[in-house]
Design brief:
This protein is of the alpha/beta class. The protein is built from six helices and six strands; from the N terminus they run αβαβαβαβαββα. The strands form two sheets. The chain has a four-stranded parallel sheet, with no helix packed on it. A two-stranded antiparallel sheet has the order 5-6.
């Protein structure tokens, strides 16, 4: 991952909108290398980023979100089974401005290490108007928050925050 990202410079991939890096076994250092490539403006039109099944953890998410939140067309972030906990959720929603993640409609956080505290952080952010276009996505009865270390009531609180906002 680091070698791939080192070769990317400003507008190396100007038309790239979908990037699937899932199941490549890179961790926080790989996520930080990808963040450095984003910082150089390599993918200005990125819409979808899939990082699923990579153990990037809280540190990897923290390194990426500051850059992803500023991409104007960015709509889908897949962090399924990435070893993310409450700290990672907090970095996703910390200090969001009105133009941050303004197009994000889908955020997959299932199969991570998020507890009730992380769900409460996410619910509070949604309740305050952050992530204005985010919606609850269900496929085969699995939600974007399933299989974490949180209670059903904590997950329901996030779903309720999403529902209230869209009504």
């Amino acid at each position: 991952m680091q070698a791939l990202c080192e070769g990317l410079c400003h507008c190396s991939l100007p038309s790239l909108t979908f990037f699937d890096l899932g199941t490549n076994k890179f961790g926080p250092a790989g996520a930080e290398a990808f963040a450095a490539a984003l910082r150089r403006g390599t993918m200005p039109r990125l819409v979808v980023l899939s990082l699923n099944l990579n153990p990037i953890g809280n540190r990897g998410v923290a390194g990426l979100v500051a850059l992803l939140r500023k991409l104007p067309a960015f709509k889908i972030l897949d962090l399924y089974m990435c070893g993310i906990g409450d700290e990672g959720v907090a970095s996703l929603v910390a200090d969001l401005g009105k133009d941050d993640f303004k197009a994000l409609i889908c955020l997959w956080l299932s199969h991570n290490n998020i507890t009730d505290a992380g769900m409460a952080t996410l619910a509070a952010a949604l309740g305050s108007g952050s992530l204005p276009k985010l919606r609850s996505h269900q496929a085969n009865e699995l939600t974007f928050l399933d299989q974490n270390q949180s209670s059903a009531s904590a997950v329901q609180a996030v779903e309720d925050a999403l529902s209230k906002r869209s009504s």
